[in-house]
Amino acid sequence: MILSCIAKGHNPWLIALAALVCVAGSWATVRLFKRAANTRWPETGAWFVLTALITGASIWCTHFIAILGYDPGTPVGFDPVLTIVSLLVAMVGAGIGFVIASAGGRTASLIGGAVVGLSIVVMHYTGMMGYRVEGIVSWDLSYLSASIVVSCSLTAASLLVIRRPHSARHTHLGTALLVTAIVALHFTGMTAFRVEPMAVEGAFSNPAALRALALAVAAVALVIIGAGFASGMIDDRSRADAAEAMSNMSNGLVAVSAAGRITLFNERVGDIFKLAPHQIQTEMPLATFIANIGERSGWDRDRTDRVVKNHALWFAKPETTRLEQEFDDGRFISVVCRPLPSGNAVLTYEDVTEARASQRKITHMAYHDALTGLANRRLFTDTIEEAGGTRAFDLLMIDLDGFKAVNDKFGHSSGDHLLVQVATRLRTTLSSEDLAFRLGGDEFAVLLPIAPHRADDLANRIVEALAVPFVVGVNIVRIGCSVGVASILATDDASTVQRRADLALYKAKNDGRGRVEFYRDGMFEEAAERQSFQDDLALAVERGQLELHYQPLYALPDRHLSGFEALVRWRHPTRGMISPALFIPAAEVSGAIDRIGAWVLDEALREAAAWPKDLYVSVNVSAVQLRSPAILTHLHRAIVEYGLSPRQVEIELTETAMVDNGGQIAAMLTGFRALGIRLAMDDFGTGYSSLAHLREFKVDRIKIDRSFVSGVGQSADEEAGAAAVVRAIIGMARELAIETTAEGIETAEQLGRIETLGCGTGQGYLLGRPMDAASARMLIKTHVSLRAFL
Question: Is the full-model pTM beyond 0.90?
């Protein structure tokens, strides 16, 4: 009967058009319903309204086009009120059914589907009530009942299938069931419809008008369905773009509803926390998600509960919460919780392990010495500032003795290797509570908690450890260290810590090196006095406070004047005359020696230019001055400017200074000899005294130290010993063609004995005390007159 009704009672073209509208509308309905069911309020309300409108319109248009294609064999018409009511019924009923079905669960899907099917039934039969024919209408109740059952059953099955986990197969099947429900209802219902035509004069239908109406309805239906498709596609595209953006985020993202359930997340979350797909899903309680993270990370129940409670606190705050969580596997995860006004919240996660590792590396580099790995001066300063005023501690300042000589002799790479070994030995002497620093160059420091005798014991162990020879490449290197110690109480100002230890270190180095010195009261005053002394010394040249005195040198045994030794004196306005033994070491330490030495050379050569050409001037030069080749330039300029012969100039260096700076001094002495200047080794016999040194440095004169000269003429034993030394020196010098000068001749006996031993030149208070330039010129004049008389 149903097939006969379709074949004989309907226009096939309009039926095909109705089928097209039905399929398109059903496909749009399924897509829109799935979208509405998977969103949250208030967006879901808008999607349900759109779904209801598209569904009702497509069902109604399918029905209306199919009715227009039905030929009852008699003129037809439509009741406009009932026709419109049928459309509203379809829309409202479908909306109600979809809302019920979206609640979740099998039962809700079946009930909601049945409601949608019932709305289709009510729409169909309401529309049929508005279908006016010229005849007697009757209904076959069996087909009518069957249409209701078929419609409700198939739509219930359709929504049940659609609500199952998403897959294309379920979507297609659900669409097919919905199409079947609509088609089955219509044609089963039309089979139940019976019409007995009545011949009415002049009453007729216009088939062409009905077909045109059907096409117009179909066009409107397709426009409405197309709008539904377009909105769905636009949303799909937006969602696809959002999904793509979320999947490509470097951060993990989790959206949480006000009820505490996950509404959205990206795959990066699972990667960060190493979660399986079932361990993070939409609609999952946030507490379950956190528990899954805790399970993967080895958290106990208490820790997991604390994290859950913390999230609740973050959600309740009006501001964004930012923190970092360190996991047991060493990873650092940055967590940002941003509460929303709606009560929802967005959580973002970022694995910042590499960034933190880089930061730690940068921080370590900023606060540690790259060569030795010890903490550097910056960390040292921060540490004593933090410790000052809070706890008692001892500070050891350590300075290596003889390190510069290693650098000069073996090169900086060997020096670096030596510093690494020093740092290693330093670490071995420390306990876990002690902190070691490299402050720069060859200067180190140690901070340790204060305890009786602890600093003294540690300082001496460090001195002993660094006194043991080092192996640097193929060389055995011997250095040492000096240590200054300052004990700082919790009540002391930390800014004075380093200054105290520095003062103690200064004293340790000044008193012989290789020793430990503790800070004591009064060192600050001594340092202030020393600084004042050095400040005055730095300005002594500019203020004209320096003077040159000249001590005569006599040739032996005829005792005629051969030259003068220039001796610098400092006439201080308040301290009086200061011996060079006091201010020359200070000048060497402070750096003023270069200015003073340059003045001495210039003044001595200027004065010597007025002397007879057979007299020479002897000038003492500090080893510090020889560090710069500028002294050669200065000497050459002065010789040329004052018209001196280079043989009238003699430079004196101590034997110890020559040996301590052997390589550097040898190069500088070569420059002196190239200028024609003579060289003298001062205080010979008190230093290393070896023939190798005389041969290496090729000096022109040896000055025998006064300690040997003063022994001559004393007791028999002393005189014999001193005479033996002097005789050996003179004999050695004679064999090497080196001139000799005896210093410190104060008695006639010493002079006679020195002459007897064959010394070439004598100097001392017996022969002449140091005198100012005017007296020296008078002595020269007298000596010249005497020689002319003789």
Answer: no
